[in-house]
Write a structure and sequence with these properties.
The chain crosses the membrane at residues 24-45, 81-100, 112-134, 158-184, 205-230, 263-286. There is one protein chain. By secondary structure, the chain is mainly alpha-helical. It has 13 helices and no strands. The protein has helices at residues 2-42, 60-67, 69-103, 106-117, 124-135, 140-148, 161-185, 189-197, 202-230, 234-240, 247-256, 261-281, 283-289.
Amino acid sequence: MNGNSTLAAHRSQGMKAAQLLFPAYLWLVLAVFLPLSAMAFFSFVTEMPFTGKPWSMTVANYAAFFTTGIYAKLLLSSLRLAFEVTFWCVVLGFPAAYVLAKVLKGRSREAIFLLVILPFWSNGLVRVFSWAMVLRSGGILDTLLNAVLPFKVDIDLIYSYPAVIIGLVHSYVPYIVLTCYLSLQAIDDSVIEAARSLGASRFTVLRRLIIPLSLPGIVAGAVLVFVPVIGSFMEPRILGGRTGTFYGTVIEDQFVAVFNWPLGAALSFILLAVVLFILAAASPVIRRSA
C-alpha cells in the first residue's frame, strides 16, 4: 500500500514538473531548434524553395568558404576582434567589479551599479550612433579637448578599427562587471584579512587569492562577451566604415543585401562550428575554474 502511494506521489510530482517545463521546452523548440533546423536546411540548397526558382541539394555553399579565401580571412579578423574586445572588457570590468564588491558600500555602490547596467536600458543602435557623435572629427570629444587644451588637436576615430573596439567594449563590459561582481561578493572578507595579517602583500593577495577565487566569474563573463562579439555586425558597420568589414557583416549582407540566404546560412553554421570548437578546446579551463 505504501509502495503504491509513493509511486502515485512520484507520478503526481512528475506531472507537475512536466506542466511547468512544457512552456519552456515549447519555446525552445519554436524559437531556437525550429529556426536552426530551417537554417540548416537552407544551407544545403541552391536556391530558396519559396522563391519559385528550381532548387536542389548541394554542398557548394560550404565549399565556397574553403575555395574563397576572403571568408577565412574575415573569420580570422573576427576572431582577433573577439579576443581583443574580451581582453579589454576583462581589463576594464574586473577592477570595476572589485571596487563595487569590496570597496564601495551603501548608496554609492547602488549609484555606480546603476551606471554599470544603464547601457542595458538603451537601444544598441542608439549607443552605437552616440559613439559616432563622440568619435568623429568635430564631435563631442574633439570639441571638448580643443576647449580645454591650449593647442589644436584633431580627434577623428570614426570609421577605424579602434572605434569598433570602443563601441563593442562599451556594449559588453557590463557582462564582465556583473559576473565578476557575483564571484567577488562570494569571497569572504575574513579570508582576505587573514592573508593580509599573515604578511601577504596586496599584489600577492590579488594574485594568489582574489583572482583564483573569482575565476568562475571571469570565465563566464569572457564567454558571454566572446560568443556574440565574434559575429557582431552593427558596431563594425557603423563605427568601422570600410575598415569594419568582418565575418558578421558579410553574413548580414548575404541575408539583407545580396539575398543569398543559402550562402549566409552556410557561413553562419561554419561560424557556429568554430565557436563550439573554441569552447570545447577551452572546456578544461572552464571546468577547473567552475
